[in-house]
Amino acid sequence: MWIFFQKQFLLYTGKFNYADLGFFLLVGVVGGIIGIMFNTINMRILRWRKAHVTDKWRKIAEAMAISLITSILILGIPLFFSCQSGSVIENTCSDYNSEDSRCRSLVTFGRFTCPEGHYNPAESIISGLFHRNSEHWFPLGEVFLFLIVYYAMVLLACGIAVPAGLFIPLILIGAALGHGMGQAYNKVFGLSLDIGVYALLGSAGVLGGVTRMTMSVCLSPIVHLCVCVRTSHIHVTRQYMFPTSLTAILLEITNDIYYLMPIMIVVMVSKWIGDRFNSALYDSHVALKNMPYLEAKLPSWVPTYIAAHDIMNPSVISLPAICSLRVLLQVINDRSHQHSAFAVLEGPAVQPKELMKMNNKYTQRSGTFAGMVLRWHILILLYNKHYGTPEKLLKFTRKNILTQAQMTDRTWKQKMHVTLEELSVKEYELDMMYIDLSPYIYLSPITVSPHTPINIVYNIFRGLAMRHLVCLDENEKIAGVITCHELIESNLEEVVKRIHQLFDLSGDSNEMFEQRLRFLKNYDTFLLSSGNKWLNDVDHSFDNRIRHLSQDQNPPAEKVKTIKNDEYTLLPDAEEFD
After folding, report:
1. Where are the transmembrane segments (predicted)?
2. Which of 10, 33, 216, 328 has CA 20 to 30 A from 85's CA?
3. 0.70 exceeded by pTM
4. What are the C-alpha distances in Å from 261 to residues 8, 216, 231?
């Protein structure tokens, strides 16, 4: 993109005043509306594509068809517009093919089928949208036609089976929008603000409306960045740190710090308008593909009384430390799940004869939690034939353990299943062969109690980029496992709805209140025993809990008094220690 701006934007010192700020707001509003329409239509196209374009040949055919249509439009549209003389460009040119500096502006434009000394506006519009003082270079009709056609092309192409991005296309759509609005604005009000500025602001508006790349404002106690925007009429100084994303990108591309504040205004307005109607494009794509993406913070609507045991999956597939080959193959080849790791349980030491008698019951909950083993590590052990009879396992030494290079072989990471033919093992040998998983267990996974509050679980899981979070009870046995799927908003909504229905259907209000208080007491007693430092005054905390949980119920006063006199302190709301 630097090629668009390196000659025109360096050290440019234009002028704008308070009257122009109204137009900047209008550009942001229109950019937000364009973004809303783009996201809505594109999501409908993607839903149709997901339902109908499923085979590989259909994806290839779709990409070829869209490429053909795009090529026809790019080559055909300039034929419908007349040529423009080079005299409308500031630097006149007597020889179209000359490389003289006086002709530099014209030779960069496409002549297409035009005679020498002329250029085709529709063919040259991409290379000229961001030029300064380019109001007369491109007629208003060509600009809006380019906007409509290119907008439709990007809508169709977004999501096809081609590795492509949206950033540059959205910049061009916004530039055409701003360029056209600038021309109309200058003609209606008789102004002469540079059209190149409008193109820049239009790009910011469309990018903000589609991607919703926000410009957040964070007050830092250590670092303060003083951003000064100075114009002939405006002086703004804010002692804030601006971690900019979209604004910073556009400023780095254009090197036009003078228009920092207008870009900020346009980006914020377009994002605010867009967020009122739908989600950002990339967020919508993530939701459509059912990707378990977690936001930076737990949604504020999730009640603070939700704990790990409310969301965990109690159906845990666990393996014994010494596992029979049949059990291991059953777990690996089970098509009902796609787990990438399995819990390993410790068990009592056994003799070879007893080891032969092990059955699937051992794989449930008969041992304490030892650690986790990855699926692809199990596959590596199988393909390296790291199994044998009980007598052979007893003779294993450190020399028989696979090396780190063998265990990090990523050839098997994408593989999910294994067959008997690949292992060269016969059916009757499955109950005679065993694998010792002990040397390959991850012994220090992060675990939580089933009573851990949801906000702590969420922060641990997302902050440490975890894939599995094991919940252990007081006996060091597995109570359940939490994955990313349990923490996504749709699943949390179901959990909250289920708990509310449980309370509402419990019958007598006193009984329901007793259930809630019993839950709170167990929950907060656990936190107190773990040395939690966020414990607060009992009356304040209790009132907060009653406000959240009792809803419209009126608990008996003696029950409240009894709870307040207990020798434990309730935890304050999550917002007090987030």
Report:
1. 21-39, 60-81, 143-176, 188-207
2. 10
3. no
4. 19, 14, 10
pLDDT band at 283 (very low <50, low <70, confident <90, very high): confident
Q: Are residues 271 and 331 in the same domain?
A: no
End-to-end CA distance of the chain: 41
143 and 197 both lie in a single domain: yes
Tokens of 260: 């920092």
Residue in the structure block whose two tokens are 């092309």: 153
Instruction: Give yes or no for residue 126 having a pLDDT over 50.
Output: yes
Total of domains in the chain:
3
pLDDT by residue (tens digit) across 351-369?
444 444 444 444 444 678 8
> Is 496 part of any domain?
no
The one-letter amino acid at 126: I
- Residue 194 included in any domain: yes
Amino acid present at 530 = S
Whether residue 198 is found in the same domain as residue 72 = yes
Cβ-based neighbours of 125, under 8 Å, separated by 6 or more: 138, 142, 143, 146, 176
The pLDDT-based confidence of 29 (bands split at 50, 70, 90) is very high
48 and 191 share a domain? yes
Position 110 scores a pLDDT of 59
pLDDT > 90: what percent of the chain? Answer: 13
Report pLDDT for 527.
44
- Secondary structure letter of residue 245 according to DSSP: S
Question: Is the Cβ–Cβ distance between 380 and 407 less than 8 Å?
Answer: yes
pLDDT at 448 over 50: yes
Q: Say yes or no: 264 and 322 in one domain.
A: no
Q: Is the pLDDT of residue 444 over 70?
A: yes
Contacts of 567 (CB under 8 A, 6+ apart): none
Residue 544 near residue 524 (C-beta atoms within 8 A): no
Q: Is 448 helix (H, G, I), strand (E, B) or coil?
A: strand
Burial of 112 (0-12, 13-18, 19+ CB in 10 A): middle
Evaluate whether residue 14 is within a structural domain: no
Residues 426 and 542 in one domain: no
> Where do runs of H (alpha helix) occur along 17-55?
18-52
Would 558 be classed as within a structural domain? yes
Residues 30 and 174 in one domain: yes
Q: Does an H or E element contain 228, and which?
A: strand 226-230
